[in-house]
Amino acid sequence: MAHAYTPGLKVAEEAVITKRRRLPLLGQVLVKVGDEVEPDTIVARTELPGNPHTINVANKLGVESEDVGHYMLKKAGDPVKKGEIIAKYRAFFGLMNREVTSPLDGVIESVSSVTGQVVIREPAIPVTIDAYIKGKVIEIMEREGVVVETKAAFIQGIFGVGGETQGVIKMVAKTPDDVLDGKDVPADAKGKILVGGSLMTAAAIKRAVEVGARGIVAGGIIDRDLIDFLGYDIGVAITGHEDIPLTLIVTEGFGKIRMAEKTFQLLKAVDGETASINGATQIRAGVMRPEIIVPGHKARAKAIESHIEEGLVPGTPIRIIREPYFGVLATVTELPPELQVIETEARVRILKCRLADGREVTVPRANVEIIEG
Amino acid sequence: MSEAKPKYELNREINSILATDCGSTTTKAILIEKVDGEYRLIVRGEAPTTVEAPFEDVTAGVRNAIREIEELQNRKFLDENGVITPRRPDGSGVDIYLSTSSAGGGLQMMVAGVVKAMSAESAQRAALGAGAIVMDVIAVDDGREPYEKIQRIRHLRPDMILLSGGIDGGTITHVVEIAELIAAAEPKPRLGIGFKLPIIYAGNKDARSHMQETLSQKVDLRIVDNIRPVLEREVLGPAREEIHNLFMEHVMAQAPGYNKLMKWTEVPIMPTPGAVGIGIQNVGKTYNMSVVGVDIGGATTDVFSLFKNEQGEDVFNRTVSANLGMSYSICNVLLEAGVKNIMRWVPFDIDEADLRNRIRNKMIRPTTIPQTLDELIIEQAISREALRLAFEHHKSLAVGLKGVQQQRSVGDMFEQTSSGQTLINLMDLGIIVGSGGVLSHAPRRVQSVMMMLDAFQPEGVTWLTVDSIFMMPQLGVLATVHPTASAQVFDKDCLIRLGTAIAPVGTAKEGEEVLHVKVTLPDGRVVEEVGHYGEIKAIPHPEGKAEAEIRPLKGMDVGAGRGQTLRTTLEGGVTGIILDCRGRQPFTLPEEKSARIKKLVEWIKSMDVYPMDAFEKLVSRS
């Protein structure tokens, strides 16, 4: 048995999915173990300290930093309103009069006798975390968050942009080769997650935004179109926090690439069901791939034994993920144990496989992924 | 050869050493033993790093890597408690186990200072030298408004902050201002939701009590000696030491499984780049040369250097180009270099959109490798740009101290020099050490030679080497307890000698004779060769030292002055002695496409860089 270097993306008709929902700061958990939750159920909340503002009161009054305390009308801990006078300097029997007013509503946090700075903090910002998926709370992390579990259809993409959102799956493509273009976006796509075949075009993305869709899933995207949509070029593969109105998930890669058959069939099976999706992708230090979760979907047939646990053996279905056979499906025929020399003269572990068109080729083991199914 | 002193005294005989490096993707283990009085690498093992789900325990990956060694050696090194130490009479176990780590993204820091070009820059060098990625540099004069600085501090989740500013006895106002800003921002650490962020204060000692007052309630405050006690001196040691201690206490302790791993080793686990830095410094001291080392990885490219400053002191510098790498950040190389700069190294036609897609697809499937020759050539073209950009970044930070009053003689006044000039002198550079997959695992060693020559453009005489299997981190941490073992393994097993390049500085007409080289090889044969402007060629010289007489023509300089003959000793290597007459200051590559491709093909053929059959098929296709 051999291991594939790139584990295949997970595509399962029924899987147990758990999600850790965590606050950025300690706070309050609002649900308990056993509670049934919806994607938009608030499960925990906290408060982020408000934005601090600094005012150099010493400079404004024209006094020494160590004397600022004498002229302050407010002290640390006092609430202030916008426009309220917080410090005053009078001299020459009122002929010289300087005042400092607060530029905002907040609380005086500190007065520095070293720098003459006063910090005023805005009111705290409430932060909440929702459940993201429909499911049941199975664990509480005290003051931090919860773990939610569900049984769902689960599809991982290879790359995405945009964060968490929910919507009803709307299958637009008829085949995994179909291109999703602007004219293919239905008028009633509001709140929907549109599914294309091999490609989502720039026009499709634009139209989907116009009609209020929540997301698009397709096999590929042209990188120029993604850059135009984002307004900037992607340098490093860490996404999910973009300020965009739509989450995009690509299942195969950059370019026009036929969606994998199993992925396409599963998306067809969940057409009309509500999904939670997330475009966030991170490919180092904690790999995250974009995902589509459809809670409550029941598998129609018993799941076939996963090939991933078996590793590469003759007969394993694979997809080649690098030139010169990028995107081509194949079946492993042989796994020679010894290192072999490839065209670049590198000595690597290879496998022999039969392509979908019948050709027998040699490919480095690092350049394949196992297809579940 | 001179040797470093050990940092940790062990006071016992060490004959058998196991060392691991936990990288972000792979954990590597090496076994070193004393054989016939000499320390040698015996065998190595490798396994995927296991800090992420579902394992979430780094020791699982370490065990797997060591298990490979157990299988290869048919010996036992592990028991249920970890690595067996000391070595037992039955051959099981080792005398010492050491480890380095960059898993979990390594050490990420923010630095803050008063003046961007002085205390803030010194703080940046301290952090980089300790092995950190510097996420941002905040300074009073960095051009941002206070609220912008505050927002930035709140947004970033560093592992720790290094704060500096003010010379001892100077004013305290500005550094306290920065501290107040940090206190107001209430920065939160990356790891550990309920933990206090560690902040190291390394500035004006007169401000220490104010630091306590302003920060100690909100953060885990540590105080060390000022990194700029006077303008003319930079003292980075204490700050680097404290960064390392905090790394161990905070970052490593949070990362899954490290608490266990820390118990396996009696020597603190070092951040990988910190260990490589020690290794590079030892190279310079051992061979008594200026060094540039580079480690080009999937996500980052680290550059290290050891050069003498104007006072003749050794200055070590490290930079990490956190967004230049060959897989995870390969798109950023494309972004920063631009397609044109990458394409200039490719000797065939390729559609730009096709190139961009290939690069994007490598980013999202980072563990794939080039199968065809065109893919290999494209990857190596990209690596040239990643190395070049990382080196530029390094040169801008490895500078003499700024803000220093210089003693100037009348002669100096006519030279337009200022403080803050780069220390990297390409003519003085003695040795380049390359590591990272694309350099260490190039199918032909000459490909590494060409990548390093094209990216760094060393001048005069420069020895070129690569780290055979990336064991620099392990050898670096080993040097802190056993410098002799580290130096011996480095010399015999780690360093692959590629050869010595001779690159005359200057320009001439294409085809003109610019170099006469007369070499006496170790076997006594004398070889004479002529270098013409615009060409690159090699004289075979597999190993040992050759005596050379190098005569530059047409006013070129090879290190002894313009037109002056240099007599020196040249190290051998796989590629031999390389005469690189393609020009320096500037390096000459034709702009026009067909002339450029013709030149690239000429150099590739002259140096036998790629397999000729496949290469000719490729070039004739386009």
Protein described:
- The complex is a heterodimer of chains A (373) and B (622).
- Chain A has helices spanning 57-61, 68-71, 202-211, 223-230, 261-269, 307-310; strands at 11-22, 28-29, 36-37, 42-48, 52-56, 79-80, 85-91, 96-101, 106-111, 117-121, 125-130, 135-141, 145-156, 159-161, 164-171, 179-180, 192-195, 199-200, 215-221, 247-254, 274-278, 291-295, 317-320, 329-334, 340-341, 347-348, 350-355, 360-364, 368-370.
- The radius of gyration of chain A is 28 Å and the shape is elongated.
- By secondary structure, chain A is mainly beta.
- Chain B is α/β, with parallel strands linked by helices and 622 residues long.
- Helices cover 35% and strands 24% of the residues of chain B.
- Chain B is built from 19 helices and 24 strands.
- In chain B, the strands form five sheets. An eight-stranded mixed β-sheet of chain B has the order 15-14-13-16-17-18-24-21, with helices on both faces. A five-stranded mixed β-sheet of chain B has the order 3-2-1-6-12, with helices on both faces. Chain B has a five-stranded parallel β-sheet with strand order 8-7-9-10-11, sandwiched between helices.
- In chain B, a hairpin with a 4-residue loop joins strand 13 and strand 14.
- In chain B, helix 3 (146-155) packs across helix 4 (173-185), helix 8 (272-287) packs across helix 16 and helix 12 (373-397) crosses helix 15 (445-456).
- The longest helix of chain B is centred in the middle third of the chain and has 25 residues, at 373-397.
- Chain B is globular and about 70 Å long.
- Chain B starts with 15 loop residues before the first strand and ends with a helix.
- Classes of the chains: A mainly beta (373), B alpha/beta (622).
- Chains A and B meet through strand 5 and strand 10 of A and helix 3, helix 4, helix 9, helix 11 and helix 12 of B.
